[in-house]
Specification:
This protein is of the alpha/beta class and about 400 residues long. The chain folds into 2 domains: about 140 residues, Aspartate Aminotransferase, domain 1 (Alpha-Beta Complex), CATH 3.90.1150.10; about 240 residues, Type I PLP-dependent aspartate aminotransferase-like (Major domain) (Aspartate Aminotransferase, domain 2, 3-Layer(aba) Sandwich), CATH 3.40.640.10. Helices cover about 40% and strands about 15% of the residues. The structure holds pyridoxal-5'-phosphate. The site of pyridoxal-5'-phosphate has 12 residues, from loops. The site of pyridoxal-5'-phosphate (PLP) has 12 residues, from loops. GO terms for molecular function: cysteine-S-conjugate beta-lyase activity; pyridoxal phosphate binding; transaminase activity. Its EC number is 4.4.1.13.
């Protein structure tokens, strides 16, 4: 998982490109720090489970026993790591988090209601609901007293008053790396409760990756009120780096959803992959040691980026190291009189580093870039150095 800290960045990049991931082959760049895939691989037990499933010929539709085991493993993980008691029968496999959002929007929320998306946001949350015939109401996040991104609850309240009925809560947050605390989540539940039928889609896909001894707090675990509003989506896809295995989990805590579910179950769960279910079970039951090591490496990569960026920090770049996720959110606005229209391209042409343009995360992200820290350490340092140099 770790890389030789003295290895040459271009050799490392060449090896990763040869391995052929989307991150390293989807964009023409010398350093691929864009899409949220990790170069650290996955846990051997997860790979073994996927291989065993294939070896046993488990490549058909999802057998009920495996599905039930996923519910049990998801519940075990949430009890052990987050102190949240999940009913295994209320855990349902879906292909991915976007499918979970689609089901929530189309079947578990008032028909036709707009979707409230705090911004900056994971990019598809701003576009996908429109494809499902829903208006998106972007709500810029605020900066709290500690300089961190925080929910603007008054603005969320306004968006719900304007008709929004699904609030997309991403926690830990992509792209800002914020890990919301219990008080903030409880305050959101209070605001949402003022609006008849309003729901919270809690995207907790980054929950396994939190730093500095923090503990992820699942939204639905905060109170009975939050549980009655929540539709929770989680997955092994970020923590164990297996998005291609197509298995997320949707956790229902509102009784009314449990009544609706049988009607949507077949279509909603059909895309979850049998091999992905086997891999997720292995990750949750046997992959926690590997995860903890990976999170320690990713946490240290925040220092690696700081090292690379050093000469620009405070003058041309502002950032707060992420509390969770392996994404760094850099404010480059101090470096420009006028921010270039396509900031990711501007950066890539000058540095060879592929990043995500903050503007793709909503207007609130204009002038920011998102940098993926899940690369070998020398590449993280080098990406930081090149960024700092191009802003001179
Ligand atoms: C916040 C967030 N939600 C959802 C996803 C998509 O997850 P998946 O497609 O693996 O379910 C991502 C991927 O980067 C993400 O960052």
């Amino acid at each position: 998982m770790t890389s030789d800290p003295s290895a040459d960045p271009s050799t490392l990049a060449g090896r990763l490109r040869d391995a052929g991931s989307l991150k390293w082959t989807g964009v023409d760049a010398q350093i691929a720090a864009w899409v949220a895939e990790s170069d650290l691989g996955t846990a051997p037990v997860v790979l073994a489970a996927a291989r065993d499933a294939v070896g046993a010929g488990l490549v058909g539709y999802l057998p009920p026993a495996l599905r039930a085991d996923l519910g049990a493993a998801t519940a075990e993980l949430h009890a052990e790591r987050y102190g949240w008691d999940v009913d295994p029968a209320r855990v349902h496999p879906v292909a991915d988090v976007l499918t979970a959002l689609q089901v929530t929007v189309e079947h578990l929320s008032p028909a036709g209601a707009p979707v409230v998306v705090p911004t900056p946001a994971y990019m598809p949350f701003l576009t996908a609901p429109r494809l499902w015939g829903r208006e998106v109401l972007p709500v810029p996040m605020r900066t709290d007293d500690a300089g961190r991104a925080a929910l603007d609850l008054d603005a969320v309240d306004d968006a719900l008053r304007a008709g929004g009925r699904v609030v997309v809560l991403t926690n830990p947050h992509n792209p800002t790396g914020r890990v919301h605390d219990r008080d903030e989540l409880a305050a959101l539940a209070d605001v949402v409760s003022r609006h008849e039928g309003a729901r919270v889609f809690a995207d907790e896909v980054h929950a396994p990756i939190v730093h500095d001894g923090r503990r992820h707090v699942p939204y639905a675990s905060v109170s009975a009120l939050a549980a009655s509003q929540a539709v929770t989506a989680t997955s092994a896809s970020k923590g164990w780096n297996v998005p291609g295995l197509k298995c997320a989990q949707l956790v229902l805590t509102a009784d009314r959803d449990v009544h609706v579910w049988p009607r949507v179950d077949h279509v909603a769960t059909h895309g979850a992959s049998t091999v992905g279910v086997a891999a997720a079970i292995a990750a949750y039951r046997h992959g926690l040691g590997w995860l903890d090591d990976a999170v320690a490496v990713l946490g240290e990569h925040r220092t690696a980026l700081a090292e690379g960026l050093a000469e620009a920090v405070g003058t041309r770049v502002r950032w707060t190291p992420p509390e969770g996720t392996y994404l760094a959110w850099l404010d480059l606005r101090p470096a420009f009189e006028v921010v270039p229209d396509d900031l990711a391209r501007w950066v890539r042409e000058r540095t060879g580093v592929a990043v995500v343009d903050g503007a793709a995360c909503g207007e609130a992200g204009r002038g920011f870039v998102r940098v993926n820290l899940a690369m070998p350490r020398p590449l993280v340092v080098e990406a930081g150095r090149r960024l700092a140099a191009c802003l001179r």
